[in-house]
Amino acid sequence: MSSPKPEIPDQNAPFQRDSADESASMNRELNGPRSRPDDLRDPHTANDALLRWDELDEQLLRMLSEDPERGWRLRKLQDADGWLRRRATEAARKAVGPALLICPPPEDLYDFGQGPGANLLTPERRASIDRHLATCLECERFVTTLSTAPPSPLVGGMPEEAPAPIERAAPTITVPRRRLRLVPVLATAAAVVVIFFGVRSLMTPAATSFPEGPLLRGAAGGPLLYPRERVLLPSAEVAALFPALNAPLRFEVEPQPEADSYRFDLFRHEGGAFGRDVKLEGAAVAANSFVARAPREAGRFTFEVWVTRRGLDQRLGARDFQIATDAALESDLLALRTAPESERTLQAVVLLHEAGYVADARELARTLPESPDRDRYLSQSPGR
Fold first, then answer.
1. Contact criterion met (CB below 8 Å) for 322 and 230
2. Dihedral class, residue 317 (left if φ above 0, else alpha if ψ from -120 to 50, else beta)
3. Which residues, 6+ apart, have CB-to-CB distance to 278 below 8 Å?
C-alpha cells in the first residue's frame, strides 16, 4: 500500500511588479546612503532629511509630515516653494517671447544639464530653459540629476569577464630563460633615468605659468562670467603692492550674437532671509563688459545682465558674489614683495586663481605685458 502523497501547500500569485519600460527616478542620491524610516528617529538625520525634503520619497515625506516637531516646518517649506513657483509662473505668463510653461524636450534638458555626451546649446536656448526651470519642479529635478557624471561602468560599459583558463597538458619544450636575464639590466637603466630626471628637476627652478580656467557645469556655468563667488577686499598694504586689486570691479559676460547693447545692474543684499536688494548702479553699454563706478566695499552683491536684440530686451541672468577680506591669502601675497615685479605679479595671479578669486586674478593679469600666454588666460571662460 503506497503512502499518501503530501499535500501541496497553497500558493499565492506572484507579486505584481512594475513594468520594465517605466522610467525610474533619476535621483543622484540613489547610489549613496539614504535615510531609512527608522533613521528619522535620530534628530540629526531627521533634520538633514528636512533640508532635502524635495528629494525624499513618499514614505519618508509622509513620516516627516506626521512628526510633531518637524511637520509644521515641512509645511512651511512646501508653502514657500509653492509661493515662489507661483510667482515665477505668473512672471513667465507675462514674459515676452515663447511660452515658458511648455516643458522642453528631454534631449534639450539633458544637453542643459551637460551629461556625458551632451551637445552644446545656444545661449538663447540655455536662457529660455533656465527660465522654465524656475516654474517646473519636474524638469528642475531631472536636470539636477546630471550635475555629476554617472559611475564609470555606465559610461564605458561593464568590464568583460576574463575567460576561464583552459587546462592543457604540460608542454614538453623547455621555455628559454634568456628574457629573465634582461630584468636586472632594465631595472638598473630605469633607476638611472629616474635619478637623472630627479636631479634635473631639483637643479632647474620651476617656472610659474598662468593657471587654467575652472570647469563648471549646470547652474555654475551660463553666460555671466565674472565676478563670481569671492572677490578680495585688500588691505592698504596689499593694495599698495598690487594696485589693480583695489580697482573698481569689472563685470564680464559672454558675447551674445546680434547684440545691440548690454545692461548691467548691480544690487547689494540688505541681509537676512527676507532682506531686499538695494540697487547701487546700472548702465547700458555696447561692449560685453562694464567697470563699476563705485569703489569696493565688503558685503554680498548680485549683478544682473540684460541684452538688447533688435529692440527687444532679454534677461541673460544674475550671479551672486561676496566681497570680503582674506588674511591667509594676504599673507601669501605680501610674501612676494621681494620678487621681481613681473614674477611677483604672475605668482600673485596664480595664488588668487587657486584660492577662488578668479576675477581679481584676471584683473591683475591685465597689468602684465601682452603675451600669448597672458592673452590665452584672459580669453578663458568657465567651461561647462
1. yes
2. left
3. 267, 268, 270
Cα separation, 169 vs 133, in Å, equals: 67
- Residue linked to cell 629573465: 180
- Grid look-up 541681509 returns 271
Using a 10 angstrom Cβ sphere, with 0-12 exposed, 13-18 middle and 19 or more buried, the burial of residue 336 is middle
Rounded Cα gap, residues 53 and 77, in angstroms: 9
- The per-residue pLDDT for range 241-298, each reduced to its tens digit, is 999 999 999 999 999 999 999 999 999 987 665 567 889 999 999 999 999 998 899 9
Does 345 share its domain with 246? yes
Q: Give the residue with greater pLDDT, 267 vs 198.
A: 267
Amino acid at 309: R
Q: Is the pLDDT of residue 180 over 80?
A: no
Q: Are strands 224-226 and 299-309 parallel, antiparallel or unpaired?
A: unpaired
Q: Which three cell numbers stand for residue 77?
A: 517649506
Nearest to 131 by CA among 98, 155, 106, 158: 98
**C-alpha distance from residue 140 to each of 100, 103, 112, 137 (Å):** 13, 10, 11, 5
Prediction pTM value: 0.46
Q: Which three cell numbers stand for residue 229?
A: 563667488
Give the alpha-carbon dihedral of 109, 113, 114, 115, to 10 degrees: -90
Task: Establish if 248 belongs to a structural domain.
Answer: yes
CA-CA distance, 159 to 216, in Å (whole number)? Answer: 29
Q: What are phi and psi of 279, to 5 degrees?
A: -75, 125
Q: In terms of residue numbers, what domain contains 243?
A: 222-378
Tell me: the pLDDT tens digits for 14-33?
A: 545 444 444 444 444 444 44
Residue 36 covered by a domain: no
Cell readout for 316 is 541673460
- CATH number at 229 reads 2.60.40.10
**Which comes out higher in pLDDT, residue 299 or 65?**
299
